[in-house]
């Protein structure tokens, strides 16, 4: 692990080590070893250790590592009718939807499902003018660290960011949940369905989904491929 940590992360680790271990912090590797020893000594439990280690990883991971790729994004065209909006919201069960101008390949903003439902609960009108409820979209580069993205979410009180590639094109989206899952593990709700990214047909034949994480691939096949390979 890179021993050069951003100041905010380093100060957090220093406070943590001073609080629990009472010895100077020289490297993140030392802290990881101390956490292991603390768990073995029952000073902290495995869940607490996992959360601390996950927090440390945020500055070493980039948005591209956790984002939903463009091919899997649910985008609503700015000319969509109210009925089309409702259908997409009901079918996807998501709470936030980017509005896109497909002709210009530009994200105009984000609308919340609660705004649409609240509109009909009060106004009882047939057409919904999304422009009145459009919220600014956070645009971030793929290379942004998850720690920096989490701070963006906190400062801007937002839960979703649109990820842009080096050419200014839409690469995907990342949510607050995507970041928090790196700390606490997978967060599933009643709408999540389990799908295998790798299916073994036996006889040396496999079906792999294109978005299979490299970590899952390595674990399944017991190899050590890098993202660049």
Report on this model:
Helix 2 (28-40) packs antiparallel against helix 3. The relative contact order is 0.11. The mean pLDDT is 78. The chain has 229 residues and is α/β, with parallel strands linked by helices. The strands form three sheets. A four-stranded mixed β-sheet has the order 1-7-6-5. The chain has a three-stranded mixed β-sheet with strand order 2-3-4. The chain has helices at residues 7-20, 28-40, 46-57, 82-92, 113-122, 146-156, 176-184, 214-221; strands at 68-69, 76-77, 96-101, 106-112, 138-141, 160-164, 170-175, 198-202, 205-208. The chain has three domains: 7-60, no CATH class; 63-193, CBS-domain; 195-229, no CATH class. Helix content is 38%, strand content 18%. The longest helix has 14 residues, at 7-20.
Could you state the CATH homologous superfamily of the largest domain?
CBS-domain
Tally of domains: 3
Q: What about the largest sheet?
A: 4 strands, mixed
Low-confidence stretches: none
Helix/strand/pairing class, anyone? alpha/beta
Helix tally? 8
Taking all residues together, what is the mean pLDDT? 78
Terminal CA distance: 20 Å
Lateral strand order in the biggest sheet = 1-7-6-5
- The CATH architecture classification of the largest domain is Roll
Shape: globular
CATH topology of the largest domain: CBS-domain
Please give the CATH class of the largest domain.
Alpha Beta
Rg over CA atoms, rounded to whole Å, is 21 Å
Give, in order, the helices and strands: HHHEEHEEHEHEEHEEH
The portion of residues assigned to helices is 25-40%
How many beta-strand runs? 9
Approximate strand percentage: 15-25%
């Amino acid at each position: 692990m890179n021993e050069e940590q951003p100041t905010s992360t380093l100060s957090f680790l220093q406070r943590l080590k001073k609080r629990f271990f009472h010895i100077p912090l020289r490297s993140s590797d030392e802290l990881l070893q101390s956490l292991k020893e603390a768990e073995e000594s029952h000073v902290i439990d495995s869940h607490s250790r996992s959360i601390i280690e996950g927090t440390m990883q945020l500055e070493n991971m980039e948005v591209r590592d956790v984002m939903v790729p463009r091919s899997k994004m649910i985008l609503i065209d700015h000319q969509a009718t109210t009925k089309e909006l409702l259908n997409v919201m009901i079918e996807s069960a998501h709470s936030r939807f980017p509005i896109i101008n497909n002709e210009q390949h530009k994200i105009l903003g984000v609308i919340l499902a609660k705004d649409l439902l609240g509109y009909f609960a009060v106004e009882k009108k047939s057409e919904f003018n999304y422009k009145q409820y459009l919220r600014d979209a956070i645009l971030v580069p793929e290379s942004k660290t998850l720690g920096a993205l989490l701070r963006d979410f906190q400062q801007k009180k937002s839960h979703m960011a649109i990820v842009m590639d080096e050419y200014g094109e839409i690469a995907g989206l990342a949510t607050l949940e995507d970041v928090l899952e790196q700390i606490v593990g997978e967060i599933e709700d009643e709408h999540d369905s389990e799908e295998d990214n790798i299916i073994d047909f036996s006889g040396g034949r496999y079906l792999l989904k294109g978005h299979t994480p490299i970590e899952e691939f390595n674990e399944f096949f017991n190899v050590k491929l890098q993202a660049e390979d």
